[in-house]
Amino acid sequence: MFQTYLVGGAVRDALLGLDVKDRDWVVVGENAESMIRRGFQPVGKDFPVFLHPETHEEYALARTERKTAKGYAGFVFHADKDVTLEQDLLRRDLTINAMAQDSDGLIIDPFGGRQDLQNGILRHVSPAFAEDPVRILRTARFATRYGFQIAPETMTLMKNMVENGEAGALVAERVWQELAKGLMERQPRRMLEVLRECGALKVLLPEIDALFGIPQRADYHPEIDCGIHTLMVLQCAADMDLSLPERYAALLHDLGKAKTPPDILPRHHGHDLNGVEPVRAVNSRLRAPKHCAELAELVCRWHIIFHQAFRLKAATIIKVFRQTDAFRRPERFQTALNVCIADVRGRLNFENAAYPQRDHWLSLLDAANRIDAAAIAAECRRIGKPELIAGQIDRARRLQIEPLQTACKNRQSK
């Protein structure tokens, strides 16, 4: 008998009163051949998933699974007419995701997901949770999204999974996928806190984990701890509703503080330059998208210079514009400055701090762009000295911004 049930996130979010964006269905009492006869189009590679002939929503055959190797891909699936709805729900990660709804609107909840939803608890359905390391990331992400607490027994299970090496079996694409989703939630710092508590942060993002316990100057950083500061900057970026590349850059901006020589702690001079290598390592390991990777490296390398905008010479400012590619990519330059705001405000008691450097940098860039570069180049060619073009353009730009920088320094000295 053809029976379909709405399952997973659609049921969960409807019970929470949230908008349901995607609907997933489970089919009981059918097999692949009978689904095709009904007009469903097969799309699943690893297990039978079909598109409805009219709505094009995904319908998966009820299935069971068996662990055969480490990692999230090491499973063998069984999907046939004899698999029950409860057997299908049993293989799911958390009780709040293991509920179904029939065509009459009745909620099928064999594992207490509705009660856990009401109590704000994330609890694993069965010991099979430990077979899929992606569930560590998903649980951390759900804790971030809903602000739920993780059941003690589930946290213990997650810790055991990390100790058994399951977290190390995660592939880069899945780590990035879950991390990116978590970073875009309203409380992204919570995801990092959960991953650190269960030990997965040390495996997946050791460069971030290494920041915890490293002190900073109390006058600049009343929160003291570099790891705490990083979480505060990330959260500030979320509170500012910044984009994924900006939030990712906020997360990685201070990696150099874990590499600062001990003799200059807690001032961390040079942590901007020292941070470039670990940022590149994270970008490579996670296979971060190019726009995220580039901004993270840019912010790490230049955020200290950006903070010092009012003290720089005009010639230095031109060099900064060139080396950050600000003339060709002003939008990226602006997003880097947005992360700098989060860096300044991501400190204890500095949550509402002003950051006039952002507007100052943008006004300098605007002034430098007012020159007629084409005319300067044409003149250098006219007199037979094309090799002077770059220098003359820089000189013209410097003359544009020097009055602004001088006026700014005068105001600062009063």
Oligomer: single chain
CATH-derived topology of the largest domain:
Hypothetical protein af1432
CATH class membership of the largest domain: Mainly Alpha
Strand order of the largest sheet: 3-4-5-2-1-8-9
Task: Give the terminus-to-terminus CA distance.
Answer: 84 Å
Mean pLDDT equals 92
Gyration radius, in Å? 27 Å
Number of strands: 11
Unreliable residue stretches:
none
Work out the strand percent. 5-15%
Shape: elongated
Organism: Neisseria chenwenguii
Cofactor: Mg(2+); Ni(2+)
EC number: 2.7.7.72, 3.1.3.-, 3.1.4.-
Subunit structure: Monomer. Can also form homodimers and oligomers.
Outline the secondary-structure elements.
Elements: E1 3-7, H1 9-15, E2 24-28, H2 32-37, E3 41-42, E4 49-51, E5 58-61, E6 63-67, E7 75-79, H3 85-90, E8 100-101, E9 107-108, H4 113-119, E10 121-122, H5 134-146, E11 149-150, H6 152-163, H7 172-183, H8 188-198, H9 200-204, H10 206-209, H11 226-239, H12 244-252, H13 271-274, H14 276-286, H15 290-307, H16 314-323, H17 330-345, H18 356-368, H19 373-382, H20 389-413
Parallel strand pairs: 2-5, 10-11
Antiparallel strand pairs: 1-2, 1-8, 3-4, 4-5, 6-7, 8-9
Helix pairs in contact: 5-7, 5-8, 8-11, 11-12, 11-17, 12-15, 12-17, 14-15, 15-17, 16-20, 17-18, 18-20, 19-20
EC number: 2.7.7.72, 3.1.3.-, 3.1.4.-
Binding site for Mg(2+): 22, 24
Organism: Neisseria chenwenguii
Quick structural summary:
By secondary structure, this protein is of the alpha+beta class.
Report on this model:
- Its cofactor is Mg(2+); Ni(2+).
- Belongs to the tRNA nucleotidyltransferase/poly(A) polymerase family. Bacterial CCA-adding enzyme type 1 subfamily.
- This protein is α+β, with helices and mostly antiparallel strands and 414 residues long.
- It folds into 4 domains: 1-118, Beta Polymerase, domain 2 (2-Layer Sandwich), CATH 3.30.460.10; 133-195, Hydrophobic Seed Protein; 205-346, Hypothetical protein af1432 (Orthogonal Bundle), CATH 1.10.3210; 365-413, no CATH class.
- The protein is 51% helix and 9% strand.
- The protein has 20 helices and 11 strands.
- The strands form 3 sheets. Strands 3-4-5-2-1-8-9 form a 7-stranded mixed beta sheet.
- A hairpin with a 6-residue loop joins strand 4 and strand 5 (58-61).
- Helix 14 runs antiparallel to helix 15 and helix 15 packs across helix 17.
- The N and C termini lie far apart (84 Å).
